[in-house]
Amino acid sequence: MHKKWKLSLLALALVVSHLAIFSIGYYLPQQQSDVQPEEPLALESDFSSKTKEIIEVIQNNFFGDYDLDEIEDAVYREIVAALGDPYSEYMSVDDVEDFGRSYGQSYGGIGVEVTLHEDRVTVVVPMAGSPGQAAGLLPGDQIVEVDGKDVEGKGLSEVVDMILGEPDTVVELGIIREGVEGIIDFEVTRAIIDQTAAESEMLDDRLGYIELTRFSDGSYQEFVKHLNGLKESNMEELILDLRGNPGGGLNEVLNIANHLVPEGKIVYIEDSDGQRLATYTSDLKERDFELVVLIDENSASASEILAGALKDHEAATIIGTTTFGKGSVQNIIDLSDGSAVKLTVSNFFTPEGNIIDGVGVSPHIEVGQVEGGNFPPLRYTSSLEREDSGAQVMVLQNILEFLNYPAGAYGTFDEDTQMGVEQFQADYGLEKTGVVNLEVAEKLNEVLEQKQREKDKQLIEAIDYFRN
């Protein structure tokens, strides 16, 4: 029996497609296969005859039911999986049809970026304000079950298809988390939201701050609106926060780069033979503010393109930790029977020729983050008290522990949890009940935000950079 945390996440989701929410790469248009393999007859003789022999052995000896079509698809999946590239995969006819239906349409989602790591779909980062973040999903969480079905070893697109669905329907995820015993089940209600990509504020009379959470459609317009607002407030210095930004559309990051990267290259693409496929440039003549960029291990794809260009042009000081390292381009190649193969066909390079994929972008000033504190605020739906359990109890306990109060056994509101709540209430002038009502939840979130900012070593380093 799994531990079960139930959470209804109404009014939280994303307008999603396979490209926008679950993958962090870029895609070229679908193509017909025109590949001419070397020594095709030898390959056909060795491979096809052995495959046929195995099928005959199964047909003549296997005790049980089987589906030859499923066996065939499994063989093709393993062929592509043997490349060892988490972004390349075989797509069955059904996968291709699902992909076509979902591209550009609105689906209910959970708002997390995922990748394939060691045969498990793994959370890269929950998007800010998303159901995944509200539920308490964390970077590194491994999705091993969807709606009670084992998904270990399945392709990324196949698992994504299982997670996506109609708004207001429920998806149950089985999660393996480091440091937590067993599988944790989350029941999440899919929904659709219009997610904000950027937020900004003036930290003092000349220092501005923009947090950019993704590079999806509309991010460029949001960025420009916030940038212009800060300039109207007489901003002279800017901190651009790309931490946890999983990427998005190439056009969005190129447009934003034109406001930040000096005239010259932003990024270029090469295939496996070193042939230059495309070069993208900036025409920015002058920038009227100094710039620091914050990055971390969850900054990926488009974030790395921007950070890499700024670093190579010496147009910003980069602070934080080395980025995720996702800088490849995938091409979906149609096969004759309606199936397809998604293959990595090229890589992005920074202006100075540095590869991003598998390497990432390193900072000028390396600053790690404080352990803990990487979790969402408490989402109040009802009071929390003794004997309660679930996702929000886990979030509450994370907050209590981060604020140095007793937290109790993870996932269960026990005596220690109650003690921690009572101590918090006493410290902040609230009625000492040991129950988390709306007033207590709001105060917890307020104090959490304040303490997270105070303990944000990377942001503090960026502010000190301008002040010293």
From TrEMBL:
GO terms for biological process: proteolysis; signal transduction. InterPro entries: ClpP/crotonase-like_dom_sf, PDZ, PDZ_6, PDZ_sf, Peptidase_S41A, Peptidoglycan-bd-like, PGBD-like_sf, PGBDSf. Keywords: Hydrolase, Protease, Serine protease. Residues 108-163 form the PDZ domain. PROSITE patterns: PDZ. Pfam families: PDZ_6 (PF17820), Peptidase_S41 (PF03572), PG_binding_1 (PF01471). GO terms for molecular function: endopeptidase activity; serine-type peptidase activity. CDD domains: cpPDZ_CPP-like, Peptidase_S41_CPP. SMART domains: PDZ, TSPc. Gene3D superfamilies: 2-enoyl-CoA Hydratase, Chain A, domain 1, 2.30.42.10, 3.30.750.44, PGBD-like superfamily/PGBD. It comes from the Bacteria. The keyword DNA-binding does not apply. GO terms for cellular component: outer membrane-bounded periplasmic space. Signal peptide: none annotated. Belongs to the peptidase S41A family. This is S41 family peptidase. It comes from Proteinivorax hydrogeniformans. The lineage of its organism: Bacteria, Bacillati, Bacillota, Clostridia, Eubacteriales.
